[in-house]
Target: Vacuolar protein sorting-associated protein 55 homolog
Amino acid sequence: MADLPGHVRACLHSGKLAFLAILVSGGIVLQILACALYDNWWPMLTVIMYVLLPMPLLFFTGSDSSLFTESDSGWVNATKFLTGASSVGSIAIPAILKHAGVIGWGALAMELSSFFVIVLSIMCYIGMSSDDEYMIL
Model:
């Protein structure tokens, strides 16, 4: 990408950011549709987990990006644990609601697909922001 003109690189970066915006918007739309189509707003409980998910990363890691490596730091290990617990909760809440008979199969499928679309967008963001030239997806 270094041999491309600056305006072409800027256009490619804008396209990747637009792709991320479309992914996040799609995840939010699936989340809302899971509630609105089945006239049951209980699946919105997973939004609490989506809000809590990045909190340990924001509070405990600081400017370190050493989450993907092995660490002896207790704070980094606590961050990994709390982030993992929040992500498991994002899958467990709709499953528990389905098991309790509160939501149907369609709402469960839309909730889980919303989770996976949002996780995909987070992974794409991490891939793009880990390199100055944005990693090609």
